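Hi R.,

Here's the chain you asked about this morning:
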Amino acid sequence: MPHDTPLMAVTGTTLVLAAPPPADAPAPARHRPRTEAAAPARRSAAARALGPYARLFAVPGARGFTAGNLLARLPMGMFGISAVMMIAGQRGSYALAGAVTATGMAATALVGPWTARLVDRYGQARIAVPATVIAVLGSLCLVLCVRTQAPSWTLFASYAATATTPNIGGMSRARWTHLLPRSAHHTAMSFEQAADELCFMLGPVLAALLCTALFPEAGTLTGAALLLTGMLVFTAHRATEPPPGGAPKAGGGRSPLRALLPLLGLFTATGLVFGSMEVTSVAHLSALGLGAASGPVLALQAAGSCVAGLLYGAGRARSLRTCLAALAGAMALPWAAAATGSLVPLALALLLAGMSTAPVMVTAMGLVQSRIPEGRLNEGMTLSVTAILAGIAAGSATAGLAVDRLGTGTAYALPAAAALTALLIGSATSRPGR
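And here is the predicted structure, written out as tokens:
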């Protein structure tokens, strides 16, 4: 090639025109040692996989609010198990502990959407910080009431006060939507789903460790401290906060509930998958004399979803129907593996089942973004999470009855049936015009 001819190279999707090399430049080496050429190739492959996420966190302020988001989100996987271990340990009643946490979940389902609506209307920092303070005070009051042997009703009231905890995941997703072009939303939502799975995988493990290694109240106290610290860090990054929507105009505009009604059935069915799978797996492993393996096996399922979420975000988005079809197929695997009576096939089946959930959640949340009215994103996200929580509660209760009456192997038919129901609902929901 003549030395005065410009050089062209393609990097990603960009055509780069380079200046010609100097006349006295040495000729490029035609052959390189295999090991020398392989290292850049490996780095290039890693860069391609991480490229979408590197661009995500190149946005000014993204790393800061994400750090706060993760700190505040970790306690979401800690509070339930911490309260159960604390109340059961001090009062000697798992029935009381379960009733208190169930009351807290019901209160969250009622209060959460209202808190989210205030966040959308008046701004994240203005509402989320005082709402978090109320929730933290509720946790501290719960610890005090348990410790001082206060009447049982005080435990219900204290834990219900934690329902003001803002939906930190929804607020984080709202920031990405505000900061990024639509073409980057798929990657951002995939990261958020992976973060959800990571926190719900690590949270219960951390809570159980604190409550057993230190003292029964340690899990709740640590969760409250992380929640408040993380929320303060998150809301301190005001430059990335979406502008408040203000009071609704006359007539109120479209309601997020009406816009999301077809999708809420899908989220409820997905919650049924999660709740029934968890209870059935714990019961089945206990029946096999492997109760100690329940935690690691369920963590493996969550880890599969976390990894799948990151991989899904680095690639091309699929249709909701395709993702739900994969979920329905994967949820039949634990049912088949349970018949073997062996731990390894069941663990592998749960890993694959977990990997099928993240693409469904990412794609469905993308539909939420596209359907809710402008300025009410956090409220719409919170409604979706509420539907999932309702499904989890119903799935857990139904699976408990199935385990007692039909056995653990048959109970694995519940998550498979719930996944098939989600596929039927999603196929109708994702049609054009719906």
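One quick note: Confidence is low (pLDDT under 50) at residues 1-47.

Cheers,
M.
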